[in-house]
TrEMBL record:
Matching InterPro entries: Trm112-like
Pfam families in the record: Trm112p
Family named by the database record: Belongs to the UPF0434 family.
Matching PANTHER family: PROTEIN PREY, MITOCHONDRIAL, ZGC:162634
Parts of the chain that traverse the membrane: none
UniProt-recorded name of the protein: UPF0434 protein NFI95_05910
């Protein structure tokens, strides 16, 4: 019997504090981030990276970011 992916479920169900979104910037470019609610990521278009949000906490490490498709 397989277990459900608890990580994926918690990523979608935990909202991010809007005050936190107001102060965060891209750690690479120091530019603005766009909150992608559907993908549950913070996107830096300038850096071409999407930073994951896990349990309501943005993971702002470049090594953890997903590269955006061209």
């Amino acid at each position: 019997m397989t277990q459900p992916d608890d990580t994926a479920a918690s990523n979608r169900s935990t909202p991010v504090d809007p005050r936190l979104l107001d102060i965060l910037v891209c750690p690479v470019t120091k530019g603005p981030l766009h909150y992608d609610r559907e993908a549950n990521e913070l996107v830096s278009r300038k850096a071409g990276l999407a930073f994951p949000i896990r349990d309501g906490i943005p993971i702002m490490l470049p090594d953890e970011a997903r590269a955006l498709a061209d």
